[in-house]
């Protein structure tokens, strides 16, 4: 685990927090909100988990590997749901989740 | 500001976090989700602000008065919205918000 | 996993957040702060992880089992460190961590 | 309030979270930790408040102005304390706090 990998993972986590927050807010304004329930639910969880993971990484916590494993799960679930929707915010969110999942898997190993 | 007032405010904040989380989760499963957009939005903000306020109070932060003022605003807005819906989870949430707002106003003064 | 187990775990998490916040704040005022570095570090991590876990449980997130596993690790580490110090706040924190670890292990299984 | 101001403020908040987390972790390893008590305390508060403010801004919350006012107070206090210490991590943190305070004041107005 290099300093560059940690830095990359923190950035991926923070980008994912932003993408999830923006997607959840946009989903809450979509006309067909009935179809966005899963997105909103998973965006919230994913944003919360990514935010914690980023902070544990920033402070060099010994819990970082286990947190990264949890974060990878959160990102995977959110990407799977958001990826099914055609909205730009969903597609951007799915992409941010996949990058974050990948960065987290490296540190979780 | 007495120790009892602080303790009461922490408990009101934590009860409000729980009520908002439960209300948001339940709103996301309501058939008429179209009408619950505002609730979900404000539940999230209120839960996040109450959670931070509780922790600043627990640690005796100098920021607690200003945080309590923000928290009272968050609770007021959430109570006003949730109070308009007949669902049990909305009514419970509105009640928890009102108690938390009251406790926060005392410490914000 | 019963509703009572979830409720008990949420309460144990919130009690642990409070105990960790109070312990960290008290450690930062101890004359022999040099010996409290580990406590302060682990109190912070543990409070952050417990706070997230409580909220995921409150909202019925699918991530709750994995979050409980992370939380049990955080509590275990914090209890081991705080339990070595004779201060009341450290002993109270260690006790809250052990109860939270136990409640989390049940839901992580 | 323009989109660019919001974007700038979010970035300033996230940079401040990182600087505060790194400063707190480094302070906890400083030989003269006795002098770093205030830094550690304020780093924690500031990181927590900046993290919440960033997320409220990301989701377009109506609470953002009041949160930015709280955040500016947190940053001001942290910059005043960290600025008094010669450590690189303290100086970097003070600088991040000042930039974040400035960005927050614009949105709090």
Explained architecture:
Four copies of one chain form a homotetramer. Chain A has one domain: Up-down Bundle (Substrate Binding Domain Of Dnak, Chain:A, Domain 2), CATH 1.20.1270.360. In chain A, helix 2 packs antiparallel against helix 3. The mean pLDDT of chain A is 97. Chain A has 109 residues and is mainly α. Chain A is built from four helices and no strands. The interface between A and C is medium-sized, with 19 and 19 residues.
Biggest interface, chains and residue tallies: A-C, 19 and 19 residues
- Oligomer state equals homotetramer
How far the N terminus sits from the C terminus of chain A, by CA atoms, comes to 9 Å
Percent of residues in beta strands of chain A: under 5%
Q: Tell me the CATH topology of chain A.
A: Substrate Binding Domain Of Dnak, Chain:A, Domain 2
**Strand/helix succession of chain A:** HHHH
Which CATH class of chain A is shown? Mainly Alpha
Main beta-sheet strand count, sense and barrel state of chain A: none
Low-confidence stretches of chain A: none
Instruction: Report the structural category of chain A.
Output: mainly alpha
Whole-number count of domains of chain A: 1
CATH architecture of chain A: Up-down Bundle
Number of strands of chain A: 0
- Which range best describes the helical content of chain A: under 10%, 10-25%, 25-40%, 40-55%, 55-70% or over 70%? over 70%
InterPro entries (chains A, B, C, D): Csp_YhjQ, YHJQ-like
Protein name (chains A, B, C, D): Four-helix bundle copper-binding protein
Pfam families (chains A, B, C, D): Csp (PF03860)
